[in-house]
Design a protein that fits this description.
two-stranded antiparallel sheet; 5 helices; globular
Length: about 230
């Protein structure tokens, strides 16, 4: 789902090394961040869907960085747009994502600006399943918020420290039926959770800036992030 790039006061880098033991292959993520980072900022990890790339969602990630977040978005080695997709590898992606978070917080040039105690995880489609997979028992206690967009439930149950969780799902989604999203919502064990139906929308078209629902979808995401992990001014 390629998105039109817009000019925003943000910068970007890619780590020199980020090899996940879980994936057994390169998992080098682009990182978007405010143009003038100061202090420690909340971090967002975004996960793409099957056959996707982080750059397909640049309108979202750049907007989040412009709002004051450090945004890391791995291209998962066996499900991205540049490889033959192996759907069965989605179950490995939560470990890949956790590894990438640790790398950005400890080894990257922004390590001193990353607040590892204020993490939000967001994902679309299979990336939404990856996002929920990060919330298993024993998960990183720094994860305070999660947003699952058009995703399914993970194979392993969720548990551990409470995570505020938001679900966004189109009611005309032909790829991941809304019933699958609601089933995932029901499996979230914590009370702070919300399911939002995007009316008359399919599989993520509302994440594209040209879609009429994009503005209110992005506004909901930013409002949720501000409430659950805080925000820095530009």
């Amino acid at each position: 789902m390629p998105q039109r790039r817009t000019r925003r006061p943000t910068s970007r880098y890619s780590p020199a090394r980020s090899r996940s033991p879980a994936a057994g292959a390169s998992c080098r993520p682009p990182v978007w961040y405010p143009a003038r980072p100061a202090g420690r900022r909340p971090v967002i990890l975004f996960s793409h869907g099957l056959g996707g790339l982080p750059e397909h969602f640049a309108a979202l990630t750049e907007a989040w960085a412009a709002a004051g977040y450090v945004v890391v978005a791995p291209a998962y080695p066996h499900t991205n747009a540049l490889v033959d997709v192996r759907r069965e590898d989605v179950g490995n992606q939560p470990a890949d994502a956790a590894y990438v978070l640790r790398e950005v917080a400890t080894n990257g040039p922004l390590a001193e600006h990353v607040d590892a105690g204020r993490i939000a995880v967001i994902g679309f489609s299979a990336g939404g399943t990856t996002t929920l997979g990060l919330l298993g028992r024993g998960h990183d206690p720094g994860i305070k918020a999660a947003i699952c967009i058009a995703g399914r439930a993970p194979d392993e149950p969720m548990g551990g420290p409470a995570v505020a969780t938001l679900f966004l799902h189109g009611d005309d989604d032909p790829v991941v039926p809304i019933a699958a999203g609601r089933a995932a919502y029901e499996q979230v064990p914590w009370p702070t959770k919300r399911f939002v139906t995007i009316r008359h929308e399919g599989h993520g078209q509302y994440l594209h800036p040209d879609n009429p629902a994009y503005g209110r979808t992005q506004a909901m995401i930013l409002e949720f992030l501000r409430a659950e992990v805080g925000q820095y001014a530009r």
